[in-house]
Amino acid sequence: MMKTEFPLVQETASQQKKLSGQFDLLIQIYRRMRTRTAGVLFVLGFLPLICAPSLQAQTDNSVDGVTVKGDNVYAMHGGQMELLTDNLKLPFDIEVNTNGYFKVGKGQERKLEEGQILRSDGWLLNRDGSAWPVFDYVALKDGKVVVVRDGQSETLTTPTMFPGNLKINPDGSCVYPDGSSARLVDGQMFRLDGTSIPAKDTVTLKDGQVVVQKSGKLIPLGPSQIMGMNDGSRVRWDGTIVKPDGTTIQLQEGKTIFIDGPAPAH
Length: 266
Known about the structure:
The protein is an alpha+beta fold. It contains one helix and 28 strands. The chain has a six-stranded antiparallel beta sheet, with no helix packed on it. Strands 1-5-6-7-8 form a five-stranded mixed beta sheet, with no helix packed on it. The longest helix is centred in the N-terminal third of the chain and has 54 residues. The radius of gyration is 34 Å and the shape is flat.
């Protein structure tokens, strides 16, 4: 019986020793895998931080504006255009996406239409030569006070006190922070925090037609017509602009220039 049992005992001990060795090997493999897994997880954990800059909008102070042609969005550098491949930050908290949409601060997204130019100074130039800020503002347009938020305008119907103690009434009269009062002129604008916005006029030559934006109104010039602008410039029907100092500019087809708009009444 002992001879019968002994080999069995010897075989069991051998198996136990073998299993023990296998178990130790598994422990070593597990530890190695755990170390490698931790390393992989460590690297993966840093990937968002490494990639984050490429996912965020990049600021480029050399950009003059952004425009859309066809299905593409372009950043404008002087007379050159460069395909926009990353979201772009402009002054006035403007962010432009590569899909042609933009927003100001936490406002709603707006689509940049083909031919429009979103300038780095916060103004949007339309194909017809009209131009207005993309940030929120209040202005007198065609004798009416309008409040513009996210590009949507509504007529002011009740006297409103803006930050900085600027009070504007629906009839265009206003009371300034120092207590003096005046009436707004067409094209005069304020940000919603009460700060004044320097107004801009434009002169555009399109399809041989000169169109000026003066005090917020678009005016096409007829043959032989000359228009005096708010800054003292004179614009001729043929695209010649005579500056207050006597120098002249010949406007090129398809181009728009900005000049100073109406001076604030206060």
